[in-house]
Design brief:
The complex is a heterodimer. By secondary structure, chain A is an all-alpha fold. Chain A is built from 11 helices and 2 strands. A two-stranded antiparallel ribbon of chain A has the order 1-2. The chains are: A mainly alpha, B mainly alpha. Chains A and B meet through helix 2 and helix 11 of A and helix 10, helix 12 and helix 14 of B.
Chain lengths: ~260, ~270
């Protein structure tokens, strides 16, 4: 038996659905600019810069090592991975995981993060719940079980109402996450309004300290480099080259196309 | 009126193109830039600052200290305490051969920000300008120990080593460059030339291979073609090789000769046009 389809007042669409979208969007934009204003300067130490470049060099060695002679590749691999004095084996960086208690700058960063992101979300969510309460806002296009009813239908005391009909608070939360791609369109990548990314960062949390990462990164590179073999790309280069005539088109012309890099 | 505006835009676009392509055509930049600054300064908006920087460096190249001084003053006024401007001031001192003062200037930048690569590299160029290549090489090595990814520095170091005839180390630097830029035929060619200069059968083989690689990456590289011919014929002429290797190298050399002949024909045909 088909259940009765609810017909919602079109005023709901005009005065509830759209305003909530606008509010969420504008709050997101404001958050982005506030986060830019409150951004603290991240000063990198010499060691960090140096380490990141070493890691890049090792990765390049793994990927493009086939373009240099075998001897040179082995020389570099030895430099990195040697048992006694290889760079990755020997270099241990001081591991100080900055917990929020000890490191004051981390603490202020976390506080700023909380203030700009979580607090507005809670406040506005609550306000919307209070203002736009007592009616159903929209219907999610997929069926939901009854367990979702108390969560999504706060304020609507109807036992027989299908769980797919949700209140305005849930529409608000839907918007918060849904507008993320809109933010990247308008504010560019890596914007301060990206709620879910920030929450992910907070979840991986203070334990993800950069120094510890460096040691682990070194270990990972060491393993990867151990596994790499040298397949010289120039093994049969002459045969490949001489299999056909050289393409001398455009040679000696005034405007040589510079697509040669 | 419209002509003036479009002319200014054209000049501005030219400057931007030169800036992005890293051209070092300093005289042209000074001509265009000076006019732009003197006539149209107010209409350039925020572009003016980067143009000041570009024109200043070009002016230093052309010994136009007056122009360089003007640009520097404007930049100092707008960005007091900026390290980028300090570096420009240091460069001006270098151009005036006041190397001690320039060195002090760069040291002060490094005190504030030890990760500033530009200041370090300028200090090394001071050593190079003073002709102290051994010290320059040492400093550059130290620099590269910390900033292994700086390709400009690797290239500079390879040049310094070549000047000192230390071909082994020059080859090492060029290998770094080849790894980070595997599609750049010029690095392959330079590496092959260094190997050829080092001499010895093994190095000649390597040089032949890398000349071939340079040719593969860019079919029109005449220098690599000649290099291929020379290394192949050199190996073929060497008394220490066995018959198969000799035959193979003679084949390579003949192929290279044919290609060179073809290239000359193409150029002859072009001349006739």
């Amino acid at each position: 038996m088909a259940e009765p389809e609810l017909l919602l007042d079109s005023n709901i669409r005009l005065w509830v659905v759209l305003p909530i979208v606008f509010i969420t969007f504008l709050v997101g934009v404001i958050r982005h600019y506030v986060s830019i204003l409150l951004q603290s300067d991240k000063k990198l130490t010499l060691e960090q810069v140096s380490d990141s470049q070493v890691l890049i060099r090792s990765r390049i060695l793994r990927e493009n090592g086939k373009y240099i002679p075998k001897q040179s590749f082995l020389m570099r691999k030895f430099y990195f991975n040697n048992q006694e004095d290889g760079f990755f084996k020997n270099t241990k960086r001081k591991v100080v995981p900055p917990s929020p208690m000890t490191d004051p700058s981390m603490l202020t960063d976390m506080m700023k993060g909380n203030v700009t992101n979580v607090l507005p979300m809670i406040l506005i969510g609550g306000w919307i719940n209070w203002t736009f309460s007592g009616f159903v806002t929209t219907k999610v296009p997929f069926p939901l079980t009854l367990r979702f009813k108390p969560m999504l239908q706060q304020g609507i005391e109807l036992l027989s109402l299908d769980a797919s009909w949700v209140s305005s608070a849930s529409w608000y939360f839907l918007n918060v996450f849904g507008l993320r791609s809109m933010y990247s369109l308008i504010l560019g990548q890596d914007n301060g309004a990206d709620q879910s990314r920030i929450m992910q960062e907070q979840m991986s949390g203070a334990a993800m300290a950069m120094p510890a990462d460096t040691n682990k990164a070194f270990k990972a590179e060491w393993e990867a480099l151990e596994l790499t073999d040298h397949q010289w790309a120039l093994e049969n280069i002459e045969e490949e080259l001489m299999s056909r005539e050289l393409d001398l088109d455009g040679m000696f012309s005034k405007e040589l196309p510079t697509g040669i890099f | 009126m419209a002509n003036v505006i479009s002319f200014k835009n054209e000049m501005r676009d030219k400057l931007r193109k030169w800036r992005e392509d890293n051209h070092r055509n300093s005289e042209q930049i000074v001509d265009v830039g000076e006019e732009l600054i003197n006539e149209h300064a107010s209409k350039l908006g925020d572009d003016i600052w980067i143009i000041y920087e570009q024109v200043m460096i070009a002016a230093l190249d052309c010994s136009r200290d007056d122009l360089a001084w003007t640009c520097l003053q404007e930049l100092k006024r707008q960005f007091p305490g900026s390290q980028r401007v300090k570096r420009l001031a240091g460069m001006r001192l270098e151009a005036l051969e006041k190397y001690e003062d320039a060195s002090k200037q760069y040291d002060s930048i490094l005190q504030d920000d030890p990760t500033n690569t530009a200041a370090r590299k300028r200090k090394i160029s001071i050593l190079k300008a003073q002709g102290k290549s051994a010290e320059a090489i040492r400093e550059l090595n130290e620099y590269l120990e910390q900033f292994v990814g700086d390709q400009e520095a690797w290239h500079e170091l390879s040049e310094l080593y070549i000047n000192e005839h230390d071909y082994g180390k020059a080859a090492f630097c060029l290998e770094e460059l080849m790894m980070t830029n595997p599609h750049n035929h010029l690095y392959c060619e330079q590496y092959a030339e260094v190997k050829y200069t080092q001499g010895g059968l093994e190095n000649l083989e390597l040089s032949r291979k890398y000349f071939a690689q340079a040719l593969k990456l860019n079919n029109r590289n005449m220098r690599a073609l000649f290099g291929l011919y020379m290394s192949a014929s050199h190996i073929a002429a060497s008394p220490k090789v066995n018959a198969t290797v000799k035959k193979a190298n003679v084949k390579y050399a003949t192929w290279a000769t044919n290609q060179i002949n073809r290239a000359y024909q193409v150029s002859y045909a072009r001349c006739l046009l």
